[in-house]
Design goal:
about 300 residues; 4-stranded mixed beta sheet; 5 helices
C-alpha cells in the first residue's frame, strides 16, 4: 500500500500547525559492531577462506645425524555467500505535493537508517548465537564458541568458559584462558595472544567500567592495586547484546574471527511510476557475515 495523504494526515496540515516532525535518524543508533568485526569488500558472488598449521618446534640435531622432516596440515575451508536485502516504499504524487513537513522526501534517509540497524542486528546475531550453528558455523562445522574445536595436529581447543558474572576473579581467569589458546598446530605451541577488548551488552557496562578503570581492587576494601586497569583493555558496549554474556577479544584480524563482506553497499534509488505519478524508493544491499576460525574470541556465557 502506498504512503498517501491518509497515511500521513498530519503532514498535510498547515505548515505552522506543528513546529517539528520527528522521525528516526541513524544518529540515534550506534554501530558498535564495526569495532569488533573486520569489514572487507568483495567483487565476487562469494568469498572463501581456509587455514593451515605451521611447523612444530625445531628439534636438536646431533652432529652427523640427519635432520628431521616435518609437515604442515591443511585445514577445511569456509565460504562467505553474499545475501541480498531489500525494502521498498511507494508514495502517491498527491501525498508528496501536499506534504508540508518533508516526511515523504525523508523516505530515502529513513530507509538508510533501517538498513544500518539491520546490518547491526545481523552482525551481533553472531555473538548472540555464538554457541549454536543456527545461523553460522566455522570451517570446522562447529559453532563460533565451543570447547571442542579440532586442532589440525591433533587434539582440541576451547574458546568458551563456564557461565559467570564479571568479577575480578572471573575476568582474570577468562583473560588467562584466552591467552593460553594454542594455534592450529597444537602440541603446546604457544602464540603471542593478548587480550585487547571486552565486548558486552548495556547490562554489564558499569560493572566492567569498575573492573577496568578502578585504580584499586574493585569491590573490596583492600588497598591493593588493580592490575586489570594497567592492561589497557578497551570496552565495547553493543546494544544488540541483550543478556549478560561477555567476550574477550584479541586483535581484530583481517583473516580470522568474524568478518563482514560488503558485496554491494547500501543504496537507495528512486523510481517514478508513469501510470499514476507515484514515487517508488528501493533500498538494497548485499553482504555476508561469517568466520573461518574464531580463535581471537573467547565467550563467557550469561549466568
Amino acid at each position: 500500500m502506498p504512503e498517501n495523504r491518509s497515511t500521513f494526515s498530519q503532514a498535510v496540515k498547515p505548515s505552522d500547525y506543528y513546529f517539528a516532525a520527528v522521525g528516526e535518524t541513524y544518529k540515534k543508533h550506534d554501530a558498535a559492531w564495526r569495532q569488533w568485526m573486520t569489514t572487507r569488500s568483495s567483487n565476487d558472488a562469494y568469498e572463501t577462506a581456509f587455514y593451515y598449521s605451521g611447523f612444530g618446534y625445531v628439534p636438536e640435531k646431533p652432529e652427523g645425524a640427519p635432520f628431521q622432516l616435518d609437515e604442515r596440515y591443511e585445514g577445511p575451508e569456509k565460504r562467505w555467500l553474499h545475501k541480498t536485502y531489500a525494502l521498498g516504499c511507494r508514495q502517491t504524487q498527491e501525498g508528496k505535493e501536499d506534504d508540508n513537513f518533508g516526511i515523504m522526501v525523508k523516505a530515502m534517509r529513513d530507509l538508510g537508517t533501517a538498513a544500518a540497524i539491520t546490518q547491526h542486528l545481523l552482525a551481533t546475531r553472531m555473538l548472540m548465537n555464538a554457541t549454536a550453528t543456527t545461523y553460522h558455523a566455522g570451517a570446522d562445522a562447529l559453532a563460533m564458541c565451543v570447547n571442542n574445536h579440532p586442532i589440525l595436529g591433533g587434539g582440541t581447543w576451547s574458546n568458551v568458559a563456564a557461565a559467570a558474572a564479571p568479577t575480578e576473579a572471573t575476568l582474570t581467569a577468562a583473560i588467562q584462558a584466552y591467552e593460553l589458546i594454542t594455534g592450529p598446530r597444537g602440541r603446546g605451541k604457544k602464540f603471542m595472544r593478548k587480550a585487547k577488548t571486552i565486548i558486552c551488552g548495556p547490562s554489564l557496562e558499569f560493572t566492567f567500567k569498575k573492573l577496568l578503570e578502578s585504580p584499586l581492587e574493585p569491590g573490596t576494601a583492600n588497598n591493593a592495586i588493580n592490575p586489570i586497569m594497567g592492561m589497557g583493555l578497551k570496552l565495547i558496549v553493543d546494544s544488540f547484546i541483550t543478556d549478560d554474556r561477555w567476550f574477550i577479544m584479541g586483535d581484530k584480524d583481517a583473516d580470522i574471527g568474524p568478518i563482514h563482506f560488503d558485496r554491494v553497499k547500501t543504496n537507495v534509488s528512486e523510481h517514478g511510476d508513469p501510470n499514476n505519478g507515484d514515487s517508488i524508493y528501493v533500498l538494497r544491499f548485499r553482504e555476508s557475515n561469517e568466520f573461518a576460525s574464531a580463535e581471537n574470541l573467547y565467550l563467557v556465557p550469561a549466568t
